[in-house]
Specification:
Strand content: 5-15%
CATH architecture of the largest domain: 3-Layer(aba) Sandwich
Shape: globular
Number of strands: 12
CATH superfamily of the largest domain: Glycogen Phosphorylase B
Number of helices: 19
Structural class: alpha/beta
Largest sheet: 7 strands, parallel
Length: 501
């Protein structure tokens, strides 16, 4: 459906074409918009307005979900994944258009009132502010001495918080020994930053899989939460570090005063095109802090999780090969290899008499269903297999020493499992960063990268070459024979029977 033929009334179009699904309409609108950008044409932002209208349609959940997916997955995320300055500029315009649309609705009243109070009446001053905060980012020695509180926004996803935010947290803790550090974001944060001196977690939920209103209007609540931290301190005693967070709509929405805000522009063009995000974070911090320091991503796991996992693994023979696998893809099915790759991989590993395969069932319902199905497939192939939860991890006796154990639990338990494993296998997702942050030998299947820059940016920065990353450029073209060959290759690499190319 072309934008100009939609008559700017998708409801009328849908009513007259009941066979056409909301997904098709939203998909056509987003595809048409992105094709304009690809052709360097002037973008028609009416498509964004139409999708925002669909995203607020109270009478149909499928319509709302289709529109939100089109806005974020088809447009915003694609522009972000381009990792170019042009992609950033276009993404800013799209997000500002969405923010402007919401401000005009009753549901966006709190957002609009706050932005007006802060003297941001429309998108132009917001865009000007975004450009301003990237100038003169180096902190003066006098300002560094004054700082007593540092506020850091989460990247919301676990992998990005390990690859990027963890470097910020640890480096800022060293550079500001007298400052309290507060990290805002989801519940995984205290599981990966546990017990760090002067580092605290402030819970803030972002509706990553929610509706348009929830994603954009949560900013008002975040502003008030942060304001309670800087109120009562003298001017210049608080800094805000934004690692390109969804909480601030990629730094487009203002929080702390501009001169005390530092935004890491993780998606812009870089001098070294092949640099990884962890390396870029270090370089940016060196500019801000006037330092020459580089650290690797690192996480701190709760001792209780480590103790439980150690007790769990203690019931197996000393010489068994502890293989931890997570097949999560962060709601991006492009990162998976087609069936029957995963079944063939597990079966191949279980052919080894010394292999204990621990399959994490993930946090999403579809991941859990897939893990359960794979366990049942292994049982049908006559391999020993059972399921365990975090609650009975140490109490349930596993009736075999060689086989598959499907485990369901939280990110803290998973981090401890990976830490205590001999080897980890997974796709491009959060666990590759958890594994490399703990120095666990890892074999990663990196599929679905939209371009070379995305692959280079998201490759984990490991310790002593402990991570082997195999890139699959187009999994849709893989034949059954290709998948079988890949499963065998990955099995050999996991079992250390084959060295990486």
């Amino acid at each position: 459906m072309k934008i100009e033929t939609a008559n700017h009334n998708w409801q009328q179009f849908l009513a007259g074409n009941p066979i056409i699904s909301p997904e098709v309409i939203a998909g056509e609108l987003s595809a048409g918009f992105m094709s304009q950008l690809a052709a360097d044409e002037k973008p028609d932002f009416r498509a964004i307005d139409l999708l925002c209208g669909m995203a607020l349609f109270e009478e149909s959940l499928p319509v709302r979900k289709a529109a939100v997916a089109a806005l974020y997955k088809n447009i915003v995320e694609q522009l972000c994944d381009d990792f170019t300055t042009r992609g950033v500029e276009l993404c800013n315009l799209v997000l500002l258009r969405m923010i402007g649309f919401i401000r005009r609705q009753k549901e966006g009243e709190s957002l609009n009132l706050l932005l007006n109070e802060l003297n941001y009446g429309d998108q132009d001053p917001l865009l000007a502010r975004y450009e301003k905060i990237h100038q003169d980012i180096a902190l003066s020695p006098s300002l560094k001495d004054q700082i007593r509180k540092i506020l850091i926004l989460s990247r919301v996803t676990v992998g990005a918080d390990v690859a990027i935010t963890s470097i910020m947290v640890h480096r800022l803790a060293r550079s500001f020994p007298r400052a309290e550090i507060i990290v805002y974001g989801p519940a995984h944060l205290p599981e990966i930053f546990y017990g760090l001196p002067r580092v605290h977690w402030a819970k803030f939920h972002y509706e990553r899989d929610g509706g348009l209103i929830g994603r954009l209007t949560s900013y008002a609540a975040l502003y008030q939460q942060l304001k309670m931290e800087w109120e009562g301190l003298h001017d210049g005693q608080t800094l805000l570090f934004d690692p390109d967070s969804r909480l601030s709509q990629l730094a487009l929405l203002p929080l702390l005063a501009d001169r005390y805000t530092r935004h890491f522009p993780s998606r812009s063009d870089q001098r070294d095109a092949s640099s990884r995000l962890s390396q870029l974070t270090n370089r940016w911090l060196n500019e801000v802090l006037d330092e020459q320091t580089n650290i690797l991503p690192q996480i701190s796991i709760r001792p209780a999780h480590l103790d439980n996992v150690q007790r769990y693994f203690a019931q197996f023979p000393m010489g068994c090969k502890k293989i931890v696998i997570n097949l999560g893809v962060g709601n991006d099915c492009r990162k998976r290899l087609p069936d029957p790759f995963e079944e063939q991989l597990l079966a191949g590993l279980l052919q080894d008499d010394g292999a204990l395969v621990v399959l994490d069932s993930g946090c999403h319902p579809d991941e859990r269903e897939r893990a359960k199905a794979l366990m049942e497939m292994m049982q049908m192939r006559a391999f020993q297999a059972t399921a365990v939860s975090e609650k009975n991890l140490t109490s349930k006796q596993i009736p075999f020493h060689h086989g598959l154990v499907c485990i369901q639990g939280g990110i803290g338990m998973l981090s401890a499992l990976i830490d205590q494993a001999d080897v980890f296998f997974g796709y491009d997702s959060c666990c590759q960063h958890l594994a490399t942050a703990r120095g666990t030998r890892s074999v990663i299947c990196f599929a679905g990268a939209p371009n070379d820059r995305f692959f280079d940016r998201w490759r984990p920065l490991d310790k002593s070459g402990s991570t082997t990353t195999i890139r699959i450029k187009d999994s849709s073209q893989l034949t059954g024979a290709d998948l079988a060959e890949l499963a065998e290759k990955f099995c050999r690499m996991i079992l250390a029977e084959e060295k990486p190319d």
